[in-house]
Amino acid sequence: MLKNKLITALSACIAFCTPSSATGITYTKADSLKVVRLLTEGIKQGEGTNLMLYYGMKMQGIPYVPHTLEVNKTEKLVVNMRQMDCTTFVETVFALALTTRDKSVKWSDFCRRLEQIRYQRGKVDGYTSRNHYFLWWTENNERQGLVTQPLRKAAGRYARRQVINIDYMSVHPHLYSMLKGNKADIATIARMEKASAGKEMMYIPAAYTGLTEKQLACIRTGDILAIATKKKGLDTTHIGIAVWGKDGKLHLLNASQIHKKVILEPKTMKQYMSGHPSQLGVWVIHPVL
């Protein structure tokens, strides 16, 4: 009798925790329940709540795990509330914030927002439809009216221009499990990379990230910060959420490869970037909420 109960309990646990793709979305029941719980709590917050900060802080402690979207043979929307990398962390927080702005607590509405953020024209249409570079992510979400770039208007003397020249994915397809050996997708990615050549993004140089909140008024708590890089073939190497700390300095709330979890980085942004000489500075992307 006890053995049967243990088997039943174990089976229920496996069903609860095992990812399913039956609906075209890869997730576990635990993921969907957590999303609904967070939305139900979030919608009760006051009108002036900074939703990016609120949901970002709720994610603290979730383990950092790379490549969480590379789990299917063909591209599907993946929701993983148990493990995150820097991009899926920001996307999940943004999707939660948008769903709350929409005054919804529905799982389906959250998934619709996540798909809109993550994919070109807001729809899954194969591996190449995902916004693999943060330039593409920014352009896609700006076209949809979901984000703005405050550095275009209010960067003052601190901003600089980064000329984009991306080709990392097409040059190194073996590093991407869903791209490796797929000549058609490699060619498509290469064409998309070429179309982006010469575009410019504004950034705040690393040396200026230690300035005060008043001096860097173009950066608000809850903005998305993307770290611009000097690395050949890439535009950015890391993203997170801006937080002006109690010390008056800029910090990054992020899924950290260094700390192996989602964390509000104890170091200031300037201290963090000083240890990474390949980092140029930060793009500033403002969510429209």
TrEMBL record:
Pfam families: AmiA-like
Keyword Magnesium: no
Signal peptide: 1-22
Molecular function (Gene Ontology), one example: hydrolase activity, acting on glycosyl bonds
An example Gene Ontology biological process: xylan catabolic process
Swiss-Prot/TrEMBL keywords: Carbohydrate metabolism, Glycosidase, Hydrolase, Polysaccharide degradation, Signal, Xylan degradation
Top-level taxon in the UniProt lineage: Bacteria
Official protein name in the record: Xylanase
